[in-house]
């Protein structure tokens, strides 16, 4: 007995659409698309990361609300430009124009940053450091405790200009 053409086509279409074999091309396609999107995104988000030495690369770790409040307490009443180091892709700028600097970096980057900040910051600048203090600088004052602790460093004090230091705003 012969089947009609409609029956033959119906069986072939059904076999194609409802196969019992697991398909391996769909997960591969999804993975490929995801990897392509990430690669395209990373080219624009991390252009400077290739230029940063491995020892200075740090993981993303957001500051908490109490820590941010402590930073604001130590910067209260200060004037001048502000820069936040540790919120970008690792590129450093000329720091001579900033009088207020916050730093939230890992300990492995702090010693290198000490040298750059002392060479470039103006005498009346203040540096606020979160979570990991500078290894060689004496802090002017501190706010908070434990993971919320922040340290203030006044550049005038670091450079030994104590006569001008007395005119600076004290930590409150």
Automatic annotation (TrEMBL):
Record flagged with keyword Membrane: yes
GO biological process, one term: methylation
Keywords: Membrane, Methyltransferase, S-adenosyl-L-methionine, Transferase, Transmembrane, Transmembrane helix
GO-annotated molecular function: protein-lysine N-methyltransferase activity
Entry keyword Transmembrane: yes
Ranges that cross the membrane: 24-47
Superkingdom of this protein's organism: Eukaryota
PANTHER family listed in its UniProt record: METHYLTRANSFERASE DOMAIN-CONTAINING PROTEIN, SI:DKEY-190G11.3
Family listed: Belongs to the ANT/ATPSC lysine N-methyltransferase family.
Protein name as annotated: ATP synthase subunit C lysine N-methyltransferase isoform X3
The organism of origin for this protein: Xenopus tropicalis
């Amino acid at each position: 007995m012969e089947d009609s053409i409609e029956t033959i086509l119906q069986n072939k279409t059904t076999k194609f659409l409802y196969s019992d074999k697991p398909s391996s091309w769909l997960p591969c396609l999804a993975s490929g698309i995801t990897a392509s999107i990430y690669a395209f995104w990373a080219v624009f988000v991390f252009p400077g990361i290739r230029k940063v030495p491995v020892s200075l690369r740090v993981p993303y770790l957001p500051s908490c609300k109490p820590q941010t409040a402590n930073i604001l307490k130590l910067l209260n009443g200060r004037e001048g430009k502000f820069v936040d180091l540790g919120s970008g892709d690792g590129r450093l700028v000329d720091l001579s124009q900033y009088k207020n600097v916050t730093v939230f970096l890992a300990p492995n980057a702090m010693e290198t940053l000490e040298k750059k900040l002392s060479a470039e910051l103006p005498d009346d600048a203040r540096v606020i450091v979160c979570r990991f203090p500078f290894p060689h600088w004496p802090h002017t004052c501190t706010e908070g405790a434990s993971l919320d602790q922040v340290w203030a460093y006044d550049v005038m004090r670091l450079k030994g200009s104590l006569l001008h230091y007395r005119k600076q705003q004290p930590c409150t």
